[in-house]
What does this fold into?
Amino acid sequence: MKFKREQIINALCNEYNHLFKDTYIPGIDLSFDEYKKGLEAKTLDELIKETSTDSQYYTLKDFMERYE
It folds into this structure.
């Protein structure tokens, strides 16, 4: 299954919000806007790597279903 670059960016942003909703520390952690801008500068391959997925145990499809 193929995903568009924008879909992966949105899913990564949703993951970021989920992970940092209770633990965000201003001045230490990237703001949401800083994180998103960093993602927008990455290539598709770099974005996929950012998801920490593989082809066997936790696939990109699994990640997208969880965070899209």
Q: What stands out?
A: The chain has a mean pLDDT of 94. The longest helix spans residues 5-20. DSSP finds four helices and no strands in the chain. The CA atoms of residues 8 and 45 lie 11 Å apart.
